[in-house]
Each structure stands twice: as structure tokens, then as C-alpha cells.
Amino acid sequence: MRLPPGVSSSEFAAVVAEFERAVGKQWVFTRDEDVDLYRDAFSPFLHEAEELVASAAVAPSTTLEVQEIVRIANRRKVPLYPISTGKNLGYGGSAPAYSGSVVVDLKRMNRVIEVNEANAFVLLEPGVSYFDLYHHIQERKLKVWIDCPDPGWGSVIGNALDRGGGYTTANYRNHFDSHCGMEIVLPNGELLRTGMGAIPNAKTWQQYKSGCGPWIDGIFSQSNFGIVTKMGFWLMPEPEAYLRGTVSLTRYADLGPMVETLNYLENARITAGFPDIASPLNGYPPIGQLQVWNETGPPSQTDEHRKLLSSAKLGYSPELEAYGVKSGIPYWQLWLSFHGPAGVIEAQWQAAQRHFAKFEGAKFRVIDRVKLPIDPAKADQYHEPELGVPSLRAFSIGARTPWNPTPSKGHMWFSPIVPRTGEAIIEANRVFSEAARELDMPLFRSFSLPACFWERCFIFILATPVTEDPATNKRYREGFKKLIAIGGQHGWGEYRTAPVFQKSVMDVYSFNDHALQRFQETLKDAIDPNGIMSPGRYAIWPKRLRERRS
Amino acid sequence: MSRRGEAWMLLAGFIICGSVWAAEPSDPYAAGRAVYTKWCAPCHDPGVIHPGTNALTAKYQGVKSGVLLEWKDLPPELVRHLVRNGISVMPQFRKTEISDTDLDALAKFLARNTPAQ
Predict the structure, then answer these.
(1) pTM, two decimal places
(2) Is A316 found in the same domain as A370?
(3) Residue A110: its chain B contacts at CB < 8 A?
(4) Chains A and B: how many Cβ contacts under 8 Å?
(5) Touching check for B54 and chain A: CB below 8 Å?
(6) Which end of chain A is more exposed for a tag (fewer CB within 10 A), N or C?
(7) Which of A152, A395, A409 comes nearest B51 by C-beta?
(8) ipTM
(9) Which domain holds residue A282?
(10) Minimal CA separation from A532 to chain B, in Å
(11) Per-block mean pLDDT, blocks of 10 residues, chain A (550 long)
């Protein structure tokens, strides 16, 4: 039996016995072969002693059982690490931030408590995956959509708490922003409901977000202040139709004005679907086509094109631009999508084209006009999440394919937020590609484009592979940390990261001598005096372990 | 109808349902097939859009199918090992996801075309 740090084997045996009484013997896992199932499947410490591992796991099925587990842990000062479904493989999976913690596996709390079609919201538990919620809605023929990230097996609550994103319309793509009301087991075992849920017998828990007084929901995301056992989300009423079109532009210098035009169209809600920027001339796909490229291979390039790309700087050379014009290959291609009544979205697409008509040589093309609902069996003709359909096609990333004979052992996402400007795209490429070359890192080695999940900012999401070779993994880990720090020097920060990198990322958020981190520690000491809840998550260490911060 | 009569009708309904359910030569692999559908199909169903199938097709280069459902050399022990240990970018699966009972049913289903050793 593995042990939490500082807990003797006899003490831990007593804790395990108490957990068994709380949830049933079969739902407490202490044998190595069972606890190993909670290892980070994509750990960059593969085959190394420093890998973050749990001591045990306990799987409650009710909020009452969660409360009992937390009370036991408090009495015995045993660190816990709650996971919803633990399927965020590129951001740390199910392994704890502090080795030896007991994973609280919430997968068995898998109830969809209410889907309200009339006012388009859901209340559910953390073990419910996007697949589960999608099937729940489909089986009942409810006219609401989910908004899911690429892999659909993750937890709706877990992804929101990690501040993940999806692909439908702007109101729903930010999963934490689209939540409404939480239920939380605090580190002392007490139950808290936020927003209108703080009113006993509340009638609008999922209908008005903030309640009255300070709105505290945010502190329970990317943190360690409690275990969220219920959460509400607003859902999109099923749209009548979907239209997807492309805007193709010919000059490198169009990038900045293209982004400005996109920003206006999006912020004015002329387009609300997931905007997707590609560079066919640089061989860079839109995110929505990435799975198809992985499955069937990228479009072929001529020898001349490849040669020009190898000598281009930051995705540009006059010769490359001339080649694009000559060959009819767009420099930039913006994919816009629209959801709504057919007449409305046609008008929005027309308005979008009018705004891009100022670009010399702009070309427009409709890729899809779809009457909704689509037959679920035909959803695979599209990038499924843009139509609110979960899938696992994203796992073609890094997997063996006819185009990738050497599969990775996983990947770590490097995902800095940068401004929504063309200049920032070029500057980030310049800074990170210089650093990546120097650090011998396999990202930013060719011109890269960011994603438009969130309004008003860009986010680069680039995979750093995990390999079988510890020396390579070590180089990538150290390089990853240096890229984080270099980003910070330029005012850019990660939106989310795996526990291995959480200290490096939070060190970037250091305004006024780390005032943010110090405030979080003040909260931690007040809310979790025994320091049992996910110690070290997002670099928030309880007082008794604070020396680990440095 | 008297309340007692209603009770008899209900009871008869249970018996009829029960006997039909028991008498039907049901799919001996139903439980395993359900586990496969929930946990494996999104990556392993036929077609290039399923990354597990695409990976196995590339791995075996036509020597055998990339579709697990068609394999005739998939012993249950191997299924149990891969589900609990993962391979390549496929992670291991926990017992709160696929219980030991579910895993046995899955292994039996996927091994249905594999001759016993």
C-alpha cells in the first residue's frame, strides 16, 4: 500500500477503513494495480520516479458520501485530489498535483438531474460526460444542444472547472462562463450552494448566475477550495440551420486587417460560430479540418511550394506570396460559421462578405448549408463539436496513422493567450520559434496559427509530445517551462496547464510581488486550514506545505 | 376492477415480462457489446474517422484488419491487459469506468471469434 506523505501505515489503514465504511469496500482502491489506473496516461515523467501518483482512490456516489470523505480526511489530515472524470489527458489527467494524495473519483456521481428545455439549462453531477449528456438529450428528443470540447468523454463539470472551451456559438463556447449555479462540498465538509442556490427552496438556481453579494463561483475553478458536486449550465436551443463559409485572402499583409474585421464581426455578433483561421499557403489547417488532415493526410504540395516554405521567415517571403497568387492558394483562409434561422444566417453571411469586400482579391465560398437537426449518423461529415455532437476523433493527434508511422506516448498542451491582432500572431511566432529552436523543442518550428475559442483574445494550442525516452521528455519539460517564462516576459500567459507546470505558469502571474498568489493563499488558509484539498493545485499550497511553492 | 384484480394484473404482467425475457435466446454478448459501444466504439468502430481503427490499420499494413470487431486472434487476457494498461495514446480505464465484471464481458465479446487456446 502506498502512503500519503507524513501518514504512517497504521494511520492510513485506519483512514482506508473509514473510507470503506463511508462508500463501501468495493469503492476504495488501495492495491497498486488499481491505484495505477489513476496515473497520468500522458505524464511527461514516463518511466521516471518523479511522476505524480496517488496513494489510493475513493469513489463516492452521493454528495453525502463526498462530505463524509472530506470530514474523514480533515480528521486524519490526509490530502485529497478530486477528479470529475480525469480525462483531460493533455492537461494532467487523473493524477494528483501532490504525490500521495487520495484521488476522490467522482465518476459514479453521474446523474443528469434536470434538463429544462423551456428555459434551456441543465443541472448535473461531475461524473456526467459530454457523451452522457448528449445521449440523455437525444433519447428524450429534447431541442437543446450541448457545447463540447474535442474529446467528448470528459466531464461537463470538470471541463468547465478547468475553464475549457467548445465549438458552437460564442455564448456557450466558454464553458465556465456558461455555467449557472454550483453546489460545493467545502474542505470542512460543509455544503455550499452559490448564486440563487443560496436561497433555500430556490426557484431560479440555473436561471440567474450571481445571486446577491460577492459572486464567488470563480474561486472554485482551477483551484483547491472545494469539491463541486452539482453545477448548472445554460444550453443552446437547437438552431434551425447552420452555414459555414470561407473567406480567402491573398496577401501576407492582409492578416492584421483580417483579424480586425473578424473581431468586429464577432463582437457585433454578425458571426457567432467558432471562427477558424487557416493558412493554406503555409500548409496550416483550420482546427475544424485538423482531424481530417490527421486521418487522410494533408493536401499535397509541389516541390516548388515546399522549397519556398522552407526558406520563408515567419510564414513569409515575397516569392511564397507570388507563388500563392500564381497557384491560387490563399495566404489566409477564415472559416466562419453561423447558427440560426436560414434567412437570418444567410443575411449574416452576406454582411460578413460585405465587410471583407475591401480586401483585394478576396474570395468567398459556402462550404455547408445544413438544415438542422442533422441525422446524427451523418455528423461525421463535419467537425462534430461545431454541431454540438461529441466524438473522440481528436485522438488522431499523435496516434499512428498512415501519415504518422511513429505515434507519441501522449502530449502536453502549450497554450498561451495572446492579443486578438495580426501583429500578436507574428510576434508570438517570432518569439516562440526563436526560443523553440534554441531549446530544440518540437513546436513553433513552422508558422503556427492560434485558435479563436474566446472572444477578444487568441489562444495558441500546440502539442508537445511525450516520448518513451526520459532524456527527451526531460528536455521537453525544461523547454516547456522556459517557453512559459518567455511568454510571461512578453505579457502572455497560459490559460490552463497540467500540474507539472502549474508553478511555472502561476509564477508568470506575478503583478505586485505575486499579489494574486498571496491572496489565493490567504483564502486557502481560511477555507482549508488543515490543507487537505488538492494541495499544490495551480500552485496553491496550504500553510503546512507552503515551502513547496518555491 | 377491484384493487385485488389490479394487483393480479400487475403481477401477471411481471411474470409474462419475466418469462419472455428469460425464454428469449438473448445475445450472449449483450453485456460486452454494450461496454464496447459505450467505451470502445468512438475510437474502434470501422472507418478512418475512428483513431483506434486508423492506428491499427496503419500498424498492420493489410496483414490484418484494423477493426477490432473483425479480429480472430484477440484473447480475452489481451483485452483485459490493454484496457487496464493502455497502449500508445489510448489511456488505461479505471474500475469506475469499466468494472471488472464489465471488462470480463467486454473481453468475452471481443474474443467471440477467437478460438480458445
Answers:
(1) 0.94
(2) yes
(3) none
(4) 92
(5) yes
(6) C
(7) A395
(8) 0.94
(9) 241-382
(10) 23
(11) 94 98 98 97 94 98 98 97 95 96 98 98 98 98 97 97 98 98 98 98 97 98 98 98 98 98 98 98 95 90 97 97 98 98 98 98 97 91 95 91 87 96 98 97 94 96 94 97 98 97 98 98 98 98 90
* B89 with A408: Cβ contact below 8 A: yes
Q: Which amino acid is at A202?
A: A
CATH number at residue A536: 1.10.45.10
Chain B: nearest CA to A433, how far in angstroms? 26
Cell numbers at residue A162, please? 478547468
A-interface mutation test, from B36, B54, B87, B100, most A Cβ less than 10 A away: B54
State the total domains in chain B.
1
- Asked if the structure places residue A535 within a domain, the reply is yes
In chain B, which residues have their Cβ closer than 8 Å to the Cβ of A404?
58
Q: What range does the domain containing B56 cover?
A: 27-110
Q: Which of A463, A469, A427, A468 is nearest to A442 (CA)?
A: A463
Q: Is B36 helix (H, G, I), strand (E, B) or coil?
A: helix
C-alpha cell at A373: 437537426
In this complex, the residue of B38, B51, B97 whose CB is nearest that of residue A399 is: B51
Residues of chain B with Cβ-Cβ distance to A290 below 8 Å are none
pLDDT of residue B25: 61
Q: What is the pLDDT of residue B19?
A: 41
pLDDT tens track for A122-167: 999 999 999 999 999 999 999 999 999 999 999 999 999 999 999 9
Q: What is the CATH number of the domain that holds B41?
A: 1.10.760.10
Q: How does pLDDT run across A359-382, given as a tens digit for each residue?
A: 999 999 999 999 999 988 899 999
B43 lies in a domain?
yes
- Whether A263 and A164 map to the same domain: the answer is no
Chain B positions touching A87 (Cβ under 8 A) are 91
**B101 in contact with A, Cβ within 8 Å:** no
Q: Which of A57, A87, A396 has its CB closest to that of B54?
A: A396
Look at the block and give the residue holding cell 438531474: A113
Binary contact (B58, A107; C-beta < 8 A): no
Contacts for A170 with CB less than 8 Å, ≥ 6 apart: A266, A269, A272, A455
B109/A contact by beta carbon, under 8 A: no
Q: For B33-38, which contacts have Cβ atoms below 8 Å and span 24 or more sequence positions?
A: B33/B109, B34/B105, B35/B98, B35/B102, B35/B103, B35/B105, B35/B106, B35/B109, B36/B69, B36/B106, B36/B109, B36/B110, B38/A131
